[in-house]
Design a protein that fits this description.
Strand content: 25-35%
CATH topology: Aminopeptidase
CATH superfamily: Gcn5-related N-acetyltransferase (GNAT)
Order of helices and strands: EHHEEEHEHEE
Number of strands: 7
Strand order of the largest sheet: 1-2-3-4-5-7-6
Number of helices: 4
Helix content: 10-25%
Largest sheet: 7 strands, mixed
Shape: globular
Distance between the termini: 49 Å
Radius of gyration: 15 Å
Number of domains: 1
Length: about 150
């Protein structure tokens, strides 16, 4: 398998998505089931301004997924949300998750003032290393990445 990570747009219809969804479910993660369900029912197509759904590929194999949406749990209009980040178990620790997170957050400041996520405890260090800060006392947000104001902002 190639060690070059390629990031590109995906959908639940993409090759290998079903295999990745089944793996995640077998490991006790439900995020790709939710992603697929919401895509198929039309409630979340990652199609609003600034939104995206990206996949990480090693060679031709889809090995990770991550999305960016407007945050439905935050009333601030320019709040974004990192969603459904999953990396295939055999390739964890080689930079796939970091590449996905970097790609979804790239240029996000154009659409969002900050990004929230709701991470499992075992992912807290991952998000904190990426610059996300812990959020206390919010049932749907564990971490937030705040973008610096643009130097051209008035």
């Amino acid at each position: 398998m190639s060690s070059i990570i390629t990031i590109k747009p995906v959908t639940p219809y993409s090759a290998d998505f079903e295999r990745l969804r089944e793996e995640s479910q077998a490991l006790g993660f439900n995020m790709l089931n939710r992603l697929s369900t919401h895509w198929l029912d039309g409630s979340n197509l990652f199609s609003a301004p600034g939104e995206k759904l990206l996949g990480a590929f090693l060679g031709n194999a889809l090995v990770g997924v991550c999305g960016l949406n407007r945050d439905p749990y935050d009333e601030t209009p320019r709040a974004g949300r990192v969603r459904h980040l999953y990396v295939s178990h055999p390739v964890r620790g080689v930079g796939v998750g970091q590449s996905l997170l970097s790609s979804v957050t790239q240029q996000a400041h154009e659409f969002f003032d900050y990004l929230n996520t709701h991470a499992p405890k075992n992912a807290f260090r991952f998000y904190q290393r990426a610059g996300f800060l812990p959020v206390e006392a919010h049932p749907r947000i564990t971490h937030r990445l705040v973008f610096a104001p643009s130097p051209n902002a008035c």
